[in-house]
Design brief:
- About 25% of the residues lie in helices and about 25% in strands.
- It is α/β, with parallel strands linked by helices and about 425 residues long.
- The strands form four sheets. It has a nine-stranded mixed sheet with strand order 3-2-1-4-7-11-10-12-13. Strands 14, 15, 16, 17, 18, 19, 20 and 21 form an eight-stranded mixed sheet that branches. It has a two-stranded antiparallel ribbon with strand order 5-6.
- A hairpin with a 2-residue loop joins strand 19 (about 390-400) and strand 20 (about 405-410).
- The protein is globular.
- Residues about 210-230 and about 415-424 have low confidence and may be disordered.
- It comes from Nocardia africana.
Amino acid sequence: MGYSFTSRDVDYLDSVAGRDALSAVAGFVLTPATMLRDLDTLRRDYGDRTAALVETVRLRRRAAAKLDDAAEWLFTDDALQQATPSLVARHRARRLAGRFVHDVTCSIGAELAALRRECPAVLGGDLDRVRLEMAAHNLADAPNVALVQADALRPCSAGAVVIADPARRAGGRRTHDPDQLQPPLPELLAVYRDRDLVVKCAPGLDFDRFALRRPDAQPLPGRADRTAADGYAGLSWDGEVEVVSLDGAVREACLWSRGLTESGVTRRATVLRSDGSSWSLTDAEPGDLPEREPGTWLVDPDGAVVRAGLVRHYAARYGLWQLDPRIAYLTGDTVPPGVRGFRILDRLDFREKPLRAELHRRDCGPLEILIRGVDVDPDALRRRIKPRGSTPHTVVITRIGRTATAFVCETPRVESAADATDPV
């Protein structure tokens, strides 16, 4: 759970004495192996301030991989866990450039730090006074940012785009139940139903269940077995759902109200990378695909594409096609930039004995086994196959129609932007 900071702690850490103490504590290792020894030394100098100092230094070290310019920031453990990575926050801020924005769950100010560079005026609100005091410290050099202690469900601004990031823990555990978020998602959407609204959600939230407001239970994109009638009780959304990944890891799903997105767009996948490159895909693009036998390569799209239900649109953009309409693996004769491509060496119905024999014949050594759409334990299967050779291979086991199929492939490679050209 981490140390529980108080306003007294924030006042001290924000003082000259606190800053000097933090600088001194930053010189200690503070790893599990050294912690007891370090604490004994620090308590002699800082007494009951030691816990707040040590926690702050450790949180700053963790924040370095996630947030820009956070070396002097103040955090709580929970606030840092939920803080939006700077690259993701900057992407969202660019979509809101020039607008007055009110972040109603601003916490320690990670989102505000990105918004202040793109927006003429930014208001941050939070119920937690300690986090607001930390945000005031973190954004002390931002003249266009104001802070207010307020309940997110009691609007205190007018004319602003509202951003909210409901807390995703209930009873100390992470939750994907919209009613258990803080503030609860149904109440949040109801309170701001007439405002331009952006809501950050955990990527594990099943947004298919509330992403469309439609009385006719038509299949949702990419989910042939799921219809609009299967939605969360009391929840509906007629705007855009954007799924964002950073360096291959899906970070969040973000709801954008209709006034903040392009006409006809209800789904968007955005792929960000630390090198500054990015691209997006929406459901306004074509999604018609040919039905063909597997090509030279298997392609595993970025997780943002899969979570956004845009596998067919991605395939159409790059001249690929599907192995099976229910499976996210794609196939084709080229590999798009920035994704893993598996060159197919052989294809066989998945039966363990023939697969083992084929891999031994190919002198298989290091073996990666990928599973999608079939109930197979890859670690247990690898132990039974007992690869003893020297050549790395990847086996992709998936379902085509009703048949479990194994593709024996070369070790995957990732095409870079220098190797291929994005056609869009």
